Automatic annotation (TrEMBL):
<feature type="transmembrane region" description="Helical">
    <location>
        <begin position="153"/>
        <end position="176"/>
    </location>
</feature>
<dbReference type="InterPro" id="IPR003425">
    <property type="entry name" value="CCB3/YggT"/>
</dbReference>
<feature type="transmembrane region" description="Helical">
    <location>
        <begin position="6"/>
        <end position="25"/>
    </location>
</feature>
<dbReference type="Pfam" id="PF02325">
    <property type="entry name" value="CCB3_YggT"/>
</dbReference>
<protein>
    <submittedName>
        <fullName>YggT family protein</fullName>
    </submittedName>
</protein>
<keyword id="KW-1133">Transmembrane helix</keyword>
<keyword id="KW-0472">Membrane</keyword>
<keyword id="KW-0812">Transmembrane</keyword>
<feature type="transmembrane region" description="Helical">
    <location>
        <begin position="65"/>
        <end position="88"/>
    </location>
</feature>
<feature type="transmembrane region" description="Helical">
    <location>
        <begin position="108"/>
        <end position="128"/>
    </location>
</feature>
Length: 191
């Protein structure tokens, strides 16, 4: 029976992870003003707009941050965490669940940027067509994160700024997201 629960937990994580990723890409694309004429951007906007349009009437953007998309990502991760608890036969306490889902959100954003920076760096090293939609969108998303170090960590013809940013993001996962997750787990199981 635990194998079935593990399989169901994995399916829940995949489904809600895909939903969270779609809305996080929308959030990042809007924040960085990615090219809307990019077919990938149009796909993302088309499939996220039916959910975000009603929420945006109530929850407006803050600067260039789409708070409605951020709320949807957080809710997806909250529901995912709740379903995993329920599948394991445990009902968490609400404060712990809220802190855990906040930690999940932070960790998800950090992991998202690690993956996008790594993928973008790999694609640029392989001399992929710079006008390819995925490369353009990833380039727009990573540019604000890499800009402060761009050109400062060049050795020969290799720019090490993506490596340094990935290391900083990994440290943030270890030093910020993990302790917050531990706190949330403690609050979820203690009364």
């Amino acid at each position: 029976m635990p194998y079935l629960l593990n399989a169901l937990s994995m399916l829940v994580q995949v489904a809600f992870g895909a939903i969270a990723t779609l809305f996080l890409v929308r959030l990042a694309a809007e924040a960085t003003r990615a090219d809307f004429h990019n077919p990938l951007s149009q796909f993302i906007y088309r499939y996220t707009n039916p959910v975000l349009a009603p929420v945006r009437r109530v929850l407006r953007n803050w600067r260039r941050i789409n708070l409605a998309a951020l709320l949807v990502v957080w809710l997806a991760l909250l529901i995912e965490r709740l379903l995993i608890f329920v599948l394991s036969g445990f009902m968490p306490l609400i404060p712990g669940l809220l802190v855990l889902s906040l930690a999940d959100l932070l960790d998800f954003i950090l992991l998202f940027y690690i993956i996008v920076i790594f993928g973008w760096s790999l694609l640029t090293m392989l001399s992929v067509d710079p006008y390819q939609p995925l490369v353009r969108l990833a380039g727009h998303i990573v540019e604000p994160v890499l800009r402060p170090l761009r050109g400062r960590l060049v050795v020969g013809s290799i720019d090490f700024s993506p490596t340094v940013v990935v290391i900083v993001l990994l440290l943030a996962r270890i030093l910020i997201a993990a302790p917050l997750s531990d706190l949330g787990a403690h609050l979820a199981i203690t009364s």
